[in-house]
Write a structure and sequence with these properties.
Blueprint: E1 11-16, E2 25-30, H1 39-53, E3 59-65, H2 69-77, E4 81-86, E5 95-101
């Protein structure tokens, strides 16, 4: 993503199909000075709408570091529900797993 006013890169957001999740994973990351300005919420809302209306996905997952309260709050704002914890492999710490049912 880029800033519309300057064209400067500000971050990324998108879907990734992780081999250990049944549904695609919503992910995002922003350059530090662009966090807290609503870009993540705006871009992720657009992505979730795209997932539902264009991709016709039945569900989307998301994972966060256990200590990343900001991302967890954002996911809840987007309609995700925390469903547990996931140990991706023995070398990594557990992460918090969220899901969002898009089927109406």
């Amino acid at each position: 993503m880029v800033c519309l006013h300057t064209g400067e890169p500000i971050g990324v957001a998108g879907f990734y199909q992780r081999p250990y999740l049944k549904a695609p994973d919503l992910g995002y990351a922003f350059i530090d000075r662009f966090t807290g300005q609503g870009f993540a919420l705006e871009s992720c809302r657009s992505l979730m709408n795209f997932a539902k209306t264009a991709l016709l996905l039945p569900a989307v997952n998301a994972i966060t570091d256990l200590s990343n309260e900001g991302s967890q709050k954002l996911l809840i704002k987007l309609g995700f529900t925390g469903i547990g914890f996931l140990q991706v492999d023995s070398n990594n710490k557990p992460v918090k797993l969220f899901t969002h049912d898009l089927a109406d």
